[in-house]
Amino acid sequence: MILCLDIGNSQIHGGIFSSHGDLKLQFRKNTKNVISSDEMGVFLRSVLKENEIDYLKIHQISICSVVPEALHSIQNACLKYFSKKPFILKAGTKTGLKIKYHNPLEVGADRIANAIASTHMFPETNSLIIDLGTATTFCAINQKNEYLGGVIIPGLQISMRSLESNTAKLPSVEISQTDFTLGKTTVSSIQSGLFWGHVGAIKQIAENLKQEAFPQQEIKVIGTGGFTKLFRGLNIFDLEEPNLVLKGLFLALKLNS
């Protein structure tokens, strides 16, 4: 079995794949505080044990990270608790992509993993990946497997925390889909603003990217990330792939084996 770990700014998203690529298990862990290798190793073994998976059956580990200070601890956890040196998706690894950024080293590993998965799942297809996590990111990949670039905006949680921390009277609220725009309370006004503000941003940015990167071409819009389900029913995505980054990590490991 293969353990894949996407280390994000807010969470670690993990998955266990069979050697054939079937996702058997997924899990999440908060990453607000830097954790030690022992804490991470014990956590991973506990998750496997609770799901009746023998840790000795983990033969390979694939990781991408946008949190450099967490990567060292997790690498050591893999060595100490699984006796495996993990594969790290980073600059210089084989991806099957042509990165068109001015500096390819600037592209986040999670965005690369998403792009690898989309090109594998939808070959010779223009794709726009919208990943709704701590940040909301847009990645444009053409049918030649060229990573053209993208957009990064603050995610829903960042927007909410910014309101809470920079105003005297605005509270933290539950992030949720609303069927109204006109709020009648402070809480409902914030919820409406967060949700519909993000809907407007996503639709406008996606439309601009379609016109700039794929004029008069067919394009598949893929939604992924933890907040994707909030936007169901709004005709934003052609399909949802919540585990896109994990699939990309599995494929990247195979490409580099």
Structure explained in plain terms:
- This protein is an alpha/beta fold and 257 residues long.
- It has two domains: 2-88, Nucleotidyltransferase, domain 5 (2-Layer Sandwich); 98-116 and 124-244, Nucleotidyltransferase, domain 5 (2-Layer Sandwich), CATH 3.30.420.
- The protein is built from six helices and eleven strands.
- The protein has helices at 37-50, 68-82, 109-121, 156-166, 186-213, 244-256; strands spanning 2-7, 11-17, 23-30, 60-65, 87-88, 98-99, 127-132, 135-141, 146-154, 220-224, 239-240.
- It has a six-stranded mixed beta sheet with strand order 6-9-8-7-10-11, with helices on both faces. It has a five-stranded mixed beta sheet with strand order 3-2-1-4-5, sandwiched between helices.
- Helix 2 (68-82) links the parallel strand 4 (60-65) and strand 5.
- Helix 1 (37-50) crosses helix 2 and helix 3 crosses helix 6 (244-256).
- The longest helix is centred in the last third of the chain and has 28 residues, at 186-213.
- The protein is globular.
- The mean pLDDT is 89.
